[in-house]
Structures are given as structure tokens and as C-alpha cells.
Records
---
Amino acid sequence: MFRVIYEWRVAAEKMADFQHAWQAVTDTIHETVPGALGSALFRSTQTPDKVLTIAKWRTQKDWEVFWGQSDPAPMRPLHQLGERIGVETFDEVEDRTR
Amino acid sequence: MFRVIYEWRVAAEKMADFQHAWQAVTDTIHETVPGALGSALFRSTQTPDKVLTIAKWRTQKDWEVFWGQSDPAPMRPLHQLGERIGVETFDEVEDRTR
């Protein structure tokens, strides 16, 4: 598995709208892009406007095909609600959560 | 759910040992500490010695009881293999991975 961590700044008053937009974006990408396996939304307890969305992909190559379109259209609604600070990519070496 | 992201630097030649130690540490904590729900291990594809371990906890309070012991004993083997750079805490707002 492959993971992409997007870091965002989202104002408190826009958080609910951001979550709703992220739900729709996540489902659209999952249903239409090969290898996309959804996303999880985390909100910092230390810096309340700091949000991570952690996407799961089958392989790095699947994500690169998607990302290579540069600023893929399905993600645009999120940019109207939050500022993207960074994008980092990781191999999921092992998942021992239950 | 509550998530704690630990960021580490682990030299390439110590990565396998780090993973083995993390497996044991994760299982020990999961089996002995109330509210601990395991961990996932991610390795950066951009910065190969950058590693994240993302722990899942039932609640923030459960983690604080564990963490309040300051440098909890079960985690010590990891510090012999990697340098811990940071610890950040997040509410898991929603998980839409499949």
C-alpha cells in the first residue's frame, strides 16, 4: 500500500464544510480512479486549524497517474475551503492497527 | 478515535531492526495498555530515513494516561534504533479508507 499525507489549514468556521467537501471528493476519487482506496481526515488537537487528509492508494504508480494531472480536478473544491500546506508520500510498511 | 503521529529518523541499515522492535512494542502496548489500538508504520518515499508511526487510541485520555508516565518504558527499544523528531496528536474525525 501507498499513503499520501496532505496537510491543510482550515479555519474553524469552515471545518464542517471542508469535511463535507472532503467526503464527496474522497468518494468521487475512490469510485473513478483506479487504485484509489479512500482517505482519512485528522484534525490536530494542538493546532486546531491544522488538518491532515491521509489517502490510501494501492501503489505509488496509481497515485502518480492521478497526481500527474497536476492539481487534479476532483480535489478543487477543497482548495476553496482550506489552504494546502504540503504533500508527502509514504510506503505503508505495515499496519498493525485493529 | 484518537491518533498520535510519531516522527522518527532511522538509518537505512537499522530500518529492519526498527520495524521488528516496533512490532514488539506495538503488540506489548496493545495487549497491556487500556485503549491502545495498535499502530501503522510509514516510510517516506522522498526522505528515506523519515519514518512515521501512527498510533490509534480509543480516546485522548487513554493516550494521556500512557504518555503521562513520560517516555513510557515499553517504547524505549525504539529510541536505541531511531531518533524521535516529534509527536503530534490528532482527533480522527472520520475514516473513509476501505
---
Amino acid sequence: MILGTIRGTVVSTRKCRNLVGFKLLLVEPYFGDKSQLFVAADTIGAGIGELVLVTTDETTQHALDRSAPVDAYVVGIVDAPPQLGK
Amino acid sequence: MILGTIRGTVVSTRKCRNLVGFKLLLVEPYFGDKSQLFVAADTIGAGIGELVLVTTDETTQHALDRSAPVDAYVVGIVDAPPQLGK
Amino acid sequence: MILGTIRGTVVSTRKCRNLVGFKLLLVEPYFGDKSQLFVAADTIGAGIGELVLVTTDETTQHALDRSAPVDAYVVGIVDAPPQLGK
Amino acid sequence: MILGTIRGTVVSTRKCRNLVGFKLLLVEPYFGDKSQLFVAADTIGAGIGELVLVTTDETTQHALDRSAPVDAYVVGIVDAPPQLGK
Amino acid sequence: MILGTIRGTVVSTRKCRNLVGFKLLLVEPYFGDKSQLFVAADTIGAGIGELVLVTTDETTQHALDRSAPVDAYVVGIVDAPPQLGK
């Protein structure tokens, strides 16, 4: 999974019907290339600046109550930034 | 999901029968390496210059009415460029 | 999907039985890092130098008549190089 | 699969119910870009500093007893660092 | 698929039960970033120094007799290094 920080929201009025009901969050990778921001769907309610855990590709479907065209999904809010070596 | 800008269309007369009926759009990533353009299938009707939301890999199938060999699919037109921090 | 140019063929006599019957083509990405050549299976009959459309990962299976261990598959031959902005 | 070294743990109290019961480990890639740390779920019991084998995307599901939104999973602890050429 | 050269083997005594029976080979990409070595499962019997064809992600399952947590699998031994343009 990817660790990332929520940097904003994305609004899409004209969208695929199966995407209705998901909040769309802009995620900045915590590790690696921080310029590679991506969009993750969320129903946990993560806020701007929070550190989250995102699963990707088809594995997102195992967190959803119904199938949806979502390749990145917030599966947890991380309690504290990871401490390397602990 | 990937945020991207529509930069053009791709025409393929000799193609796989399951690909017939999809518009093929050239997408430039909004974040990260802008040289990594890719092709996404579209039925929402996104136009050149519009900012779109693209889902990838097998998750595309959850937006389609029939299965198709499509690993990138436009699932929404974004209302406005994202504001970081909002 | 990935746009790529056919640069050669790959021959593999000792191979997995489900791979028999596919032509194996060496594809150079049209956009991004051109050193990242990869191999795609093909049954459309694309030739050396032709510009093709390749789908990847499990979505390849939606173009095949039988399941096969193929993570890149040629799904179309592109009529002309894409014109950015048109 | 990815070879990686366990560098820490990630704690997420507010998380998706299907993620409960998995230890979440911070993994540093052994080869390639070491800055691209990611999070893998684990039930084998790998410890900090150990070299592990991680499978990704939907293939994680073939190691689990129940489906879970996990796109990286520890499938083995490696006996010794690999010797190139042996 | 990825073209790669076998550079070594990986031994993992403490591993997931579904991984038992597979040889684990260290693969160096033939094209692109050669530092990005990864591990592929093999039952064809590829040896050190041989050039192989590797399929990835869930498509590996279409080469296996039983499902396994394997995201890279050797599906062929390549007869000769590819000749660009032929």
C-alpha cells in the first residue's frame, strides 16, 4: 500500500454513475517522488493534511460494498508518521 | 486515479473487435512526468483541453457495460483544477 | 493503453503451453522513456515499424479467445501518429 | 515479486474493517530506488531489518484466507541476501 | 511482458504455503533500468544467465496449475537476444 498525505479534493460533476457517493481526495506520496500526486476515493472521512494508507488496482474492490471504477482507495488513517527502525 | 488533460485523439481502424465503439483519447498526466502520455477509452465525451479523471487496470471494467481490453478509462470530467490545501 | 512502435520480434521455443500461438513483438514506447522496451503478444498482425495500441495487465484477457499468461497485448494498429491538440 | 527490507511498522486505528488483523510493515526496496518505501501486510511475522519477499496487486489474494484490500503482502522471509551469479 | 536475465536464486524457508514448489529466480531487466531487479517464480527451469520472458500481476495465474501469490512468472526462455528492426 501507499502512504500519502491528503492535499486537497477533486470535484467531478460529470462522472461515471458508479463513482457517485465517493469523496475524491488528492494524495501526495509520503515516500518517493512527491510530484506524483494521484486521486483516491474515500469513505473513511480523511481530512486535508492527514496521513493515509491507500490500496490500489483491483484490490480496492475488497474494501467496497459495491464494485466501482476506483483504482486507489483510502483504507486507513495512520496514527503517526512512521518511525524508521521502530 | 490519474488526473490528466486531453491532448488529442487516436484513430485505429484495424483493431480488436471489443474495442469498437470507444473514443480513444490521448491523455497528458496533470501531475508528475508530463511526457508519459497514454491512451484512455472514453464514453463520457471529454474534449481536447479538458481535465479528466482516469481509472486504470482491471478496475476499468467496473465502469463498462461490457468487458473490453481497456486498461485506462475516463470516469469523470473535473470541474476545476485542484487547489492544493483546499 | 500504451502507444508503441514495433521494433522486432522475440522467439521462445521453450515456453509455457498457454503462450503457444501468439506472435511476440518487441514494443518501444512512443511517449516517455523509449529505453523501456517490452514484449506484447499479437494476433492482429502488426509489422516492424508500425504504431500500435497495447493494453496491459489483466485487461488483456478481454481481448483473448482463451485465457493466457499475457500482460501486454496489441489491441489496434494506429492509423497515423497522434497530433497533439487535434 | 519485490525483495525488500522491513524498516518499521505503521499503525492505523481508524481503518477499513477488512484490514483488521494484519500487521502493517514499512518495506524498503532492496533493489532500485530505496526512497520508494511502501506498506505491506504481514501474517508471517517478519521483524525489523529482515529481508522479505513481497507479492503485489490482486495476486495478494492468493495468499490470504479471506479477501482484503491489500495490494502488497509478505509471502516469505528470505534466508540470505541474494548472491548475483549464484 | 518483461525481458530479463536470470542473475541468481532466492531461498525462502519461512514462506507462504502456496509458494512451496516454485523456484524463485532473481531477474535483471534486459531493457530500461537494470538496477530494478525483481523475483520471478519459475517451473520451466531457466538457468543463471539465460534470457527469459516474464509475465506479471494477475496474468501469472493463467500459466499456473493452481492459484499462487506470484506477481511475476517465467513463461518462456528466449532463443536469442532480440534484434531491433528484425
